[in-house]
Amino acid sequence: MFSPVFTDLWLSPYAQGEILHSDGAFVLTVNPDLDEDTPVMVLETLDGKVSVALTPEMAAAAGLKPGEDLNEESFRRHLGQAGIALHGADYLFTFLGEERDALLREATGDGIRQLTAQDAEVFAAFEASASEQDRDSAYVELDHWLVYGAFEDGRLVCAASMYPWNDSTVADLGVLTLPTARGKGHARRVVRAICRHAAGQGYESQYRCQLDNHASTALAKSAGLTLFAKWDAVFVEPEDSED
């Protein structure tokens, strides 16, 4: 069973506000309390149900009105006609209860440890060995809430970092492995080590990856994570504050 904390975090935005449409397959809710950085969110759960939450401003911009006969296709058509683009769906993975319990009983393997600010030089060399595209997609940072790494012959070859998601006790995870060190199990061991540490601190682990990132999906499954849903959103970059 998925944890109540994780389930509530992901399902609650679609149950708050004014419901414009609801049936067995599609729910659309206008939620004024959505984060301004994600004013439109779409969640597809494993049962195939699609839930949408969007701000009143976005609902107005898309021409969505109460009483309209809606489904997923017509909703997406409204967005397209209004020039509102979704980012592209992510898979959402987390640990089921029994897998999380097994994780807590596991020992951290040799060559894997937590990284701190004292590892700045080692981490900089690691980043310099990775491509810009890999760094951007992984979003692994030494100043995140929790960071772990795997070493091979004294060199950092894989790192994972976590940060609390939306100020909750769900921690979002990113992982990056150097190309020359892939296929050796480093990422799986690092993911399990950092998730075990997070679980010991009372956090639920969250792993996201794009639907077409087959290597990342395979890593999630090999690390013992279970698919929860597919999630898409409109992302709005925050404006720089004026001095």
TrEMBL record:
SUPFAM superfamilies for this protein: Acyl-CoA N-acyltransferases (Nat)
Enzyme class: transferase
Matching Gene3D superfamilies: 3.40.630.30
Domain N-acetyltransferase intervals: 110-243
Keywords linked to the UniProt accession: Acyltransferase, Transferase
The keyword Acyltransferase appears for this protein: yes
InterPro entries linked to this entry: Acyl_CoA_acyltransferase, GNAT_dom
UniProt KW Acyltransferase keyword: yes
E.C. code: 2.3.1.-
Molecular functions per Gene Ontology: acyltransferase activity
Name of the featured protein: GNAT family N-acetyltransferase
Organism, as annotated: Streptomyces celluloflavus
Source lineage: Bacteria, Bacillati, Actinomycetota, Actinomycetes, Kitasatosporales
